[in-house]
Amino acid sequence: MDERFYVFLTAGVIAGYFVLQLARKRFDPFAPVWMFLLGYFQVYVVQAISYNDYGLRVRGVEVVTEANTRSLWAVCWFIFVYSLPLGRFLAGKGPSAPANWSPGLITWISPILVAWGLMGAFMLQHDSSKEGMEMSQEMFLLMQFPMMMLSAAILLIVTGREVSRPKPMLAYIGLAVGMMYVMIWMFNGKRSHSLFGVLTTTCAWYCSRGKRPSLPILGGVALAGAIVLTLAIGWRNNPKYERSPAGFLVYLTDFNPADILVNVNVVEREVAKPNDKRFMSRETEEWGGYLLMLDTVPMKSSFDYGSSYLRIFSTFIPRIVWPDKPYYGREEWVNAWIAGSEFKRDKTFTGPAIGILGALHLNGGATATTIVLAALALLLRGTYEYFLRYRTSPWAQAWWAMTFYNAWLMTVNDDPFVWFYYIYGFTILPLMGSLWIFNKLSRPATPAFSTSYYGDPSSYYPPPGEWSDGQLTHPAL
Known about the structure:
Blueprint: H1 5-23, H2 32-50, H3 52-58, H4 61-83, H5 86-91, H6 103-125, H7 137-142, H8 147-160, H9 168-187, H10 191-207, H11 215-236, H12 245-253, H13 259-263, H14 277-280, H15 286-296, H16 311-314, H17 330-340, H18 355-389, H19 394-401, H20 406-412, H21 418-441
């Protein structure tokens, strides 16, 4: 049997789940399962097909077949657990979201957040360490908060589009700040942040009015996301253009839409030396890293047994308190690359992601894959159900816009929780936690609109039969 048979089955499972949700009128583009499956499809279907010959040549048919088989049963298991009602049960046990919302507070803190984010973006662009100069720990810390600017954009959009107290000017300012964030981070060559800007502003714009984009609009958003990703990647190390705003504008005018197909791994990238092994290798892309882990662990190097997840806690202990703090899980990750790479690697090796299945195999093989995927499915479903339960709360709308897209990062990185200590844990979580406390303790205000408009708050949102040109049909909206 062709080893790609399992890849086609994986594609069929994802497509079938999508069609089923559309047929049941329960498709919600802001549900995290779709961001998860989008990343999963990119790595374990598109890359698996495009790089099949490479995999067979370097790792052999047995490893490739095992990889494709695991990709199939893993996605089936994830969808099964995600579909269980347990996530809804867990959501009901959490503290309620605040019904109150303070436009005055948002208007006051947003300029501070924008300035903070701009400072982080500027410092990254003028990183003295790139020029061989030492950077203080305080300076390095200040560079880690670019998302503050995007957070301000989301808060302004949600506040400006609040149904009971609309302030259109704030909403449009927030939209402009979000677009500026996308442009800045394309210029900085960071694909993830550029995509975050597109996804979060779209979610905030629609969720703040209880709407969902129609499928044509959703297709346009997907295209916009692909374009900003391609532009950011292409600009990052492009020697043809001057590294200045003027050079960037010239680069934009020369953009070739066909480059999108290259960045989604459908078309091969042109290389200067096509016969050079370094250019032919795919091991530093997610599927190639996945094959390396399957071929290496535990035969040539050991499992990490989930030690990387200790970083969820250790990341937030400053080195001034714990000077010799270890980078949990890093040693096992590097050892696997040293043992299984096509090239000579040493302890200083850093960089490529191995995708969620590569990371879970490094945790503990098929057993760890089963356990962690179930936990992730419950986490994603539980947080989504929490949002649905309190979807009329502006706080919940802003929180969800800054949260749902992280399901994509789970699938395409080298650790399914890297999103938490990469940006979320020390930017979004403290900000939204502070706003939760403030709005809970402040004087009650009239909610934006009653949850009775939607029926049972634990039901899917929007309920079946309430779609009309991409929005809910209730007259209040």
